[in-house]
Amino acid sequence: xxxxxxxxxxxxxxxxxxxxxxxxxxxxxxxxxxxxxxxxxxxxxxxxxxxxxxxxxxxxxxxxxxxxxxxxxxxxxxxxxxxxxxxxxxxxxxxxxxxxxxxxxxxxxxxxxxxxxxxxxxxxxxxxxxxxxxxxxxxxxxxxxxxxxxxxxxxxxxxxxxxxxxxxxxxxxxxxxxxxxxxxxxxxxxxxxxxxxxxxxxxxxxxxxxxxxxxxxxxxxxxxxxxxxxxxxxxxxxxxxxxxxxxxxxxxxxxxxxxxxxxxxxxxxxxxxxxxxxxxxxxxxxxxxxxxxxxxxxxxxxxxxxxx
Length: 308
Prior knowledge:
Order of helices and strands: EHEHEHEEHEEHEHHEEHHH
Distance between the termini: 34 Å
Oligomer: single chain
Strand content: 15-25%
Number of strands: 10
Number of helices: 10
CATH architecture of the largest domain: Alpha-Beta Complex
């Protein structure tokens, strides 16, 4: 069983070191050996700090480690370069991780176990946030941090985030060369578009609730400004993904009606929040979500800061 782990990195040399440390500590699935696991890294920044990390570590690394610098159109180009490089190693499976994450030791075992036991093509697992000390309680449970679908082991689903999943190489190859659509290179949402297209093509996806990776939340992400940008951007890209993949007039009207309903809900919550303060924060986030969706309906794209 040959599995290649694909990583995109952007100006996070310390995070990449931590991730590579975590991969070296992985338990191996049944039938796998150190010679059947490979790691490929795409560095998407001109400073090539990630490339330097890999060149330093490759000679003594537990698994075969390759890295290249791919400068191009944002995250989509980086992910597509990772797909190409991973497939060139001739794997049976390809797994994806991001450079601000690190896996638990059973991560790969759990992904492979669930994929093979369910005879599915793709499997994803939870990404759980690790917050700085003294993070406000309301942020610890905010759904815009981390990525957890809270499903049962082996449950069917449509995955949404590309930071923690395993896919059959033949399934991935069928999506190449533009597995991740360039329209979302600067905004994010390329992963949602990828999984939505798989679902539309009838590709089976399941959840592995014990295939856990952890994600660092740096202090700058605790600000209201960051959260506002995040919520608006996610809402905007979700609408744009569906505009591209479900372009019919009927679906356009349904999306528009849902956005209007969201705006009405945000208005009601905002009024109630003036009296009942605990609802004020929720109302604010609903307004940001509405704004993101509304701008997408008017063909405006938000831009995600690099490293976001």
